[in-house]
Automatic annotation (TrEMBL):
The gene is qorA. GO terms for cellular component: cytosol. It comes from Corynebacterium glaucum. The keyword Oxidoreductase applies. The keyword Oxidoreductase applies. Keywords: NADP, Oxidoreductase. Its EC number is 1.6.5.5. It is an enzyme of class 1 (oxidoreductase). Residues 10-317 form the Enoyl reductase (ER) domain. CDD domains: QOR2. SUPFAM superfamilies: GroES-like (SSF50129), NAD(P)-binding Rossmann-fold domains (SSF51735). Pfam families: ADH_N, ADH_zinc_N. This is Quinone oxidoreductase 1. PANTHER family: QUINONE OXIDOREDUCTASE PIG3-RELATED (PTHR48106), QUINONE OXIDOREDUCTASE-RELATED (PTHR48106:SF13).
């Protein structure tokens, strides 16, 4: 089958389109014909070696497609599913644990189904697990027009929260506003002060920061006394080591560096979050903006654009 393979860590150029053997499902897995695969920022960390990953490997963990074989015979051939935690999805076929799939609701486009789980479940645990966002919550989200950012904004807006979204361009600001952000900001040295002024002179309850290195100081500055800094990603690089005493000085802050796997650790928790996202997509309360899909063989271009901040919303590769 055709797939993208990484044989050495490096930049987007190490994503090579090639022929590999099709995977064989274990008893607990399903074999899937992939329609679309999601491209996520975490794929760039594995590719570069920032996160440990043996080579050679096929990138990607989520997507949509049709079941072609269930060794247990429980799920019929042809069933359309969305999945996460699959093993190598930048490929014509992949295998995934049977408990990490959901049926694609009627009328949901396969490219939306392909990108809804990883980013949707992330936004879900951030707003329901890390901090219980409600109508009294004020929050900051950085990369507010990115894949996670737009969905998190929609989920928080539906709860009536005050959302201060931070983006790099006016085009992205338009998208963040349409997703429900209360106010949108572009970067400046006095960003924390401008947001506090917009929040009645107070810091915010929680900061959701997927940018990392470049925005960590800002995140500490803009959080209220006893508020939460949720550093959930490193698009600009890893946060530098810092003095823990800063959390005390800046107002007894809480700091967490969470990951999706710990908030979908059990099958029940995975199902709860996956179904909440799928329901939201089906009833229209969640709208995934899909950046124009790339072909599988153009995975390199997709990574280049994602890392050059050229994409908005969710990024997918068309496979089958
Ligand atoms: P995005 O679509 O949000 O793309 C990344 C965005 O980060 C860019 O569009 C850009 O937005 C912003 N950014 C700021 N500085 C930089 C920089 N120096 N280089 C590149 N981008 C920069 O990606 P995802 O939605 O896939 O992921 C967002 C973040 O969430 C990532 O850090 C990812 O690792 C993290 N994540 C964490 C999870 C977890 O469970 N911990 C799960 C899923 C994602 P702008 O131009 O507006 O600044």
């Amino acid at each position: 089958m055709k797939a993208i393979q990484v044989s050495e860590h490096g930049g987007p150029e190490v994503l090579r389109y090639t022929d590999v053997d099709a995977p064989q499902p274990s008893e607990e897995q399903l074999l899937i014909d992939v329609s679309f695969t999601g491209v996520n920022y975490i794929d760039t960390y594995f590719r570069s070696g920032t996160y440990p990953q043996e080579v050679p490997y096929i990138p990607g963990t989520e997507g949509s497609g049709r079941v072609v074989h269930d060794p247990k015979g429980e799920i019929s051939e042809g069933t359309l599913v969305a999945f996460n935690e699959a093993v190598g999805t930048y490929a014509e076929q992949t295998v995934v644990n049977r408990n990490r799939v959901v049926a694609v609701p009627e009328g949901v486009a396969p490219e939306v189904a392909a990108s809804m789980l990883l980013q949707g479940m992330t936004a879900h645990y951030l707003t329901e697990g890390v901090w219980h966002v409600d109508a009294d919550t004020s929050l900051v989200v950085t990369a507010g027009a990115g894949g996670v950012g737009l969905i998190l904004t929609q989920m928080a807006a539906a709860k009536g929260a005050r959302i201060f979204s931070v983006v790099s361009t006016e085009e992205k600001a338009v998208l963040a506003r349409a997703a429900g952000a209360t106010e949108v900001f572009t970067y400046s040295d006095d960003l924390a002060d401008r947001i506090k002024a917009a929040n009645g002179g107070e810091g915010v309850d929680v900061v959701y920061d997927g940018v990392g290195k470049d925005t960590f100081d800002f995140a500490l500055d803009v959080t209220r006394r006893r508020g939460m800094v949720c550093s959930f990603g490193s698009a600009s690089g890893d946060v530098e080591p810092f003095e823990i005493q800063r959390l005390n000085r800046d107002g007894s802050l809480f700091l967490t560096r969470p990951k999706l796997g710990d908030y979908t650790a059990t099958d029940d928790e995975f199902r709860l979050r996956a179904q909440a996202v799928a329901r939201g997509v089906e009833d229209g309360t969640l709208s995934f903006r899909i950046h124009p899909p790339y072909a599988l063989e153009d995975a390199r271009q997709a990574h280049e654009d994602l890392q050059a901040r050229k994409t908005t919303g969710s990024v997918v590769l068309r496979v089958g």
